[in-house]
Write a structure and sequence with these properties.
The complex is a heterodimer. Chain A is an alpha+beta fold. Chain A has 3 domains: 215 residues, Uridine Diphospho-n-acetylenolpyruvylglucosamine Reductase, domain 3 (2-Layer Sandwich); 112 residues, Alpha-Beta Plaits (2-Layer Sandwich); 148 residues, Alpha-Beta Plaits. Helix content of chain A is 34%, strand content 20%. In chain A, strands 15-12-14-13-18-20-16 form a 7-stranded antiparallel sheet, sandwiched between helices. In chain A, strand 8 and strand 9 form a beta hairpin. Chain B is an alpha/beta fold. Chain B has 4 domains: 104 residues, Alpha-helical ferredoxin (Fumarate Reductase Iron-sulfur Protein, Chain B, domain 2, Orthogonal Bundle); 57 residues, no CATH class; 132 residues; 105 residues, Rossmann fold (3-Layer(aba) Sandwich), CATH 3.40.50. The longest helix of chain B is centred in the last third of the chain and has 17 residues. Classes of the chains: A alpha+beta, B alpha/beta. The interface between A and B is large, with 64 and 45 residues.
Chain lengths: 484, 426
């Protein structure tokens, strides 16, 4: 065993340092399974002090490392490139403090998103950002990726809910960002916000202070089914135009509905509908009555086939279940799944969906759509067989064109999944060399030796250079298809 | 970074089990199974999660694993509780993948050492042969009466964790087997004109003979004729879990023959019921599949037929705990609760995580005492919060595990099989 591994074992014991190359296969990828890379080792620290000690060893040995939570990321963020060591934070799952009156909590990074809400539920509080993987994904991962979720339309992304953090910098030193009073310390730039969404390239957050929200008095969840996707999208526009700010506006298309209904997450969505729109309103009961009437009017105006409303928690949970399980249910369609993430202005949703369907048809790939309609945040899912090289190539090519379409329509290449390794080749759709240079400088302040999660989020200075040192399928296939 | 092309080129050929491989492909790596997995909850290790294990088993089938012994500990730590199947939106048949992979590993490179030998020997030569099992229990009872168990623990011949797990051996009266053959409803009970066959399994009889007697009594009191076939054998579940499907198939075939004339085969052990419902897959025959469709858990059967005999009053606050192989394995959740709701005076309390594994998992608590202990401790914590005097669960392993952990925690609650509460007043 190399001396670094021996030192790590001395530090954490042999049960919390994994070095068997065969066992390490399990850490080869996250929810984005196109790129795979086996780490050199996996370590499982349990405290800030242990993370610091591990990072100091790695820094001294100049060995790159990657922080990892539950591995539900969809862009390759926690995949270890090169010979990096994974710092797995799954054992750091203590809720350290709950400040009820001040409405914040301090948690370790491995605390699961939904577990935090469960821990404060009896106080009438919850943690608002709710990615679809919320029963699995960790607050640390959410912080690193600036995760979103259905309820972010009204309540904002992770960035709006993190007040501060203690982070282990890539040399092992500890930095304190923000405070329970706010993410920005007096007289300083908002470093907490800067760290949020850095995809694990600035350091490892080991204690995170998050805002807790008061549960709303009333929640009303409505499901409308439509004969066309266009009608569903127009309903969304009508609801927003009426001045409402629903807690969530989610659309699932027919193929998604059918996959979900075949799974354990079946929610009773009508299988014959071309699309269903899930609308959630929350607030004081008096206000909701009027808002709900407006939603029902929008449903009626756009010819909804059927409208169902859940007023009790059990039915509400059922209506949400299908949406939350949609990603995994796609496994029923083919062996692999590429979950895309792009954003368009809400008014361009129809155009985007038509364009996406055309791209799918052109490449002959099986495309389904489930998306946060309120934010214009699209998640086209391509189901493919990863063992078939030609099919995989068509999938990647279609994904590339879809993201270009989003940008052309005035949107962006990611709403909430991040860049990771997945979108390094798409970065230049939005940014030029100057943008890149500025971003690289900011990163160098935190991570001067590029030891912390190298090869993520920012492509190297020249795209050609990136492709050359990046023997990944993305680059190779795009060249074959004449895109690069 | 390597790309997935290297695994595509090495897709399994003739040597790999194509069926198992195909099932691993149902997983799209979403991770929704992680919170359902007891070992991932305790260990926080990806390779000790369903997603991680499926990934490793897929890699093994693809020929990407250099040394299968390196991934074996992760597979051995799996309880095979199937909670991940309940959580999986993609419908991955995790249990089949795990059992087939373990069988393949065991066949290609059997585990060595005294412990592995003892496990194989005991499972096949004692547990699977009811007469020897009875003899072993008689010996153990004798040893206990003579104080040898106390001595063995003191001399550390019997490890302390084992001693803690092993409850006192029941008396000969308690271990008495049911009379084989046909039993008729007693005089005064209106017959339903329906005959069921009762499966009695291996460990339930010597450990919880009262559960078999209660099962028989409830069936008879509700007007059913009950046949106890003499030729029946152990269900083979423990052998399947230990990666020994060959011997398990012999037992399964014997059971298919022993119950050939039965229309309905009722059992009171979730693990056995689950295994028997999977005989179609184990045997790969039409007979096996036909037998599987006849199997019913006692709660499933009685809830469907309806109770005609009102159970005796039981003024107690109790919690029902779902055995994994009943809720995740057979999808039976509502039926035991429906039946228990008909017990006069019984207050059924909700507790936090009734569907979480208790850590028993066949002989898992003997093979992985540390992990099983932690999982058991969490179960007791959740039960203790409910403030109950009685725990109801329908599987012998779970009954033993929960009982031993209740005692270790100094908790006074007792453990019963739900069927014991359905016995009408005498």
């Amino acid at each position: 065993m190399p001396s670094l591994e021996r030192d790590l074992v001395r530090l954490l014991g042999d049960r919390r340092v994994l070095t068997s190359p065969d066992a390490l296969l399990a850490w080869e990828c996250d929810g984005f399974t196109v790129h795979k890379s086996r780490p050199r080792a996996v370590v499982l620290p349990e405290s800030t002090a242990e993370v610091q000690a591990v990072v100091r060893l790695l820094y001294a040995a100049k060995v790159p490392f990657v922080p990892r939570g539950a591995g539900t990321c969809l862009s390759g963020g926690p995949t270890a490139r090169g010979d990096a060591i994974v710092v797995d934070l799954c054992r750091m799952k203590k809720v350290l403090q709950i400040a009820t009156a001040d409405m914040f909590a301090v948690v370790q990074p491995g605390v699961v998103n939904a577990d935090l809400t469960a821990a404060v539920k009896h106080l009438g509080l919850h943690y608002a950002p709710d990615p679809s993987s919320q029963t699995v994904c960790t607050i640390g991962g959410n912080f690193a990726e600036n995760s979103g979720g259905p309820h972010c339309f009204k309540y904002g992304m992770t960035q709006d809910h993190v007040l501060g953090a203690r982070v282990v910098l890539p040399d092992g030193s500890l930095a304190v960002l923000g405070s329970p009073a706010g993410s920005r310390l007096p007289g300083a730039p908002d470093l907490t916000a800067l760290f949020c969404g850095s995809e694990g390239t600035f350091g490892i957050a080991t204690e995170i202070t998050v805002r807790l929200c008061r549960d709303q008095q009333t929640v009303r969840t409505m499901l409308g089914s439509f004969a066309s996707m266009t009608a569903a999208c127009r309903t969304v526009s009508d609801i927003v135009a009426a001045g409402l700010v629903p807690a969530a506006l989610e659309i699932l298309d027919q193929a998604t509905i059918r996959a979900v209904e075949a799974s354990v997450y079946r929610a009773g969505y009508p299988a014959d509908a071309a699309a269903v729109l899930l609308v959630e309103l929350d607030g004081p009961a008096v206000a909701l009555a009027e808002e709900a009437a407006e939603v029902h009017a929008a449903f009626a105006h756009n010819g909804a086939l059927r409208v169902e409303e859940a007023t009790d928690p059990a039915n509400r949970k059922r209506l949400w279940k299908g949406r939350k399980g949609a990603f995994g249910a796609m496994g029923r369609l083919n062996t692999d799944l590429y979950v895309l993430d792009g954003v368009v202005p809400r008014t361009q949703l129809e155009a985007a969906l038509q364009g996406i369907a055309a791209i799918g048809a052109k490449h002959g790939v099986l495309l389904t759509n489930v998306f946060h309609a309120g934010d214009g945040n699209l998640h086209p899912n391509i189901s493919y067989d990863g063992r078939d090289a030609a099919q995989t190539a068509r999938t990647i090519a279609a994904g590339h064109e879809i993201l270009q379409l989003c940008v052309d329509l005035g949107g962006s290449i990611s709403g909430e999944h991040g860049i990771g390794t997945e979108k390094l080749d798409h970065f230049r759709m939005m940014y030029d060399d100057t943008d890149l240079a500025v971003m690289a400088k900011v990163r160098a302040v935190w991570n001067p030796d590029d030891l912390c999660n190298p090869g993520k989020a920012l492509p190297s200075r020249s795209a050609c250079a990136e492709s050359a040192k990046w023997p990944a399928m993305t680059a190779r296939i795009l060249r074959d298809e004449g895109h690069a | 970074m390597a790309v997935s092309s290297d695994c595509r080129s090495s897709a399994p050929g003739a040597s790999a089990d194509a069926d198992v491989y195909a099932r691993t492909l149902d997983c799209v790596h979403c991770g929704l199974c992680l919170p359902a997995c007891p070992t991932h909850q305790v260990l926080g290790v990806e390779a000790d999660s369903p997603r991680g294990r499926i990934y490793l088993m897929r890699a093994l089938a693809e020929g990407r694993v250099q040394d299968p012994a390196a991934i074996r500990p992760f597979l051995d730590r799996c309880l095979d509780c199937r909670a991940c199947e309940t959580a999986c939106p993609s419908g991955v048949k995790y249990g089949e993948i795990l059992e087939s992979t373990k069988a393949k590993l065991e066949q290609e490179r059997p585990q060595r050492g005294l412990r592995a030998f003892l496990v194989r020997f005991l499972l096949w030569h004692v547990v699977a042969r009811q007469r020897r099992l009875r003899a072993m229990f008689a010996l153990a009872r004798g040893a206990e009466v003579l104080g040898l168990r106390w001595l063995a623990t003191k001399l550390r011949l019997l490890p302390a964790h084992m001693a803690r797990l092993l409850p006192p051996v029941p008396s000969a009266a308690e271990r008495r087997p049911l009379r084989p053959g046909l039993h008729h409803p007693p005089a005064g009970v209106t017959p339903r004109g329906k005959r069921v066959a009762l499966f009695t399994g291996c460990i339930m009889e010597p450990m919880f003979g009262r559960v078999h007697r209660a099962t028989l009594q409830v069936l008879l009191a509700n007007g059913f004729e009950v046949e106890v076939p003499a030729a029946q054998r152990c269900c083979g579940a423990l052998l399947v879990h230990a990666g020994m499907p060959g011997p398990a198939r012999q037992l399964a075939a014997a059971n298919v023959r022993a119950f050939a004339d039965a229309d309905v085969v009722v059992n009171n052990s979730a693990g056995c019921g689950c295994a028997m419902k999977e005989y179609g897959h184990l045997l790969g025959t039409a007979d096996g599949a036909a037998f599987a469709t006849k199997c019913r858990d006692i709660s499933e059967f009685l809830a469907a037929e309806g109770l005609s005999a009102t159970p005796a009053e039981c003024r107690t606050k109790a919690a029902y705990d779902d055995p994994c192989h009943l809720c995740h394995g057979q999808g039976v959740r509502a039926q035991p609760r429906q039946l228990l709701a008909q017990v006069p005076g019984l207050e059924l309390a909700a507790h936090d995580k009734p569907e979480d594994c208790c850590g028993s998992a066949g002989i898992y608590n003997l093979l992985q005492p540390e992990l099983a202990g932690e999982i058991g401790r969490r179960k007791i914590e959740s039960l203790a919060k409910a403030g109950i005097d009685l725990v109801l669960t329908g599987n012998p392993g779970c009954m033993l595990q929960i009982d031993s952990h209740l005692r270790a925690a100094g908790h006074k609650a007792r453990v019963r099989h739900p069927i014991e509460l359905l016995v009408p007043p005498s």
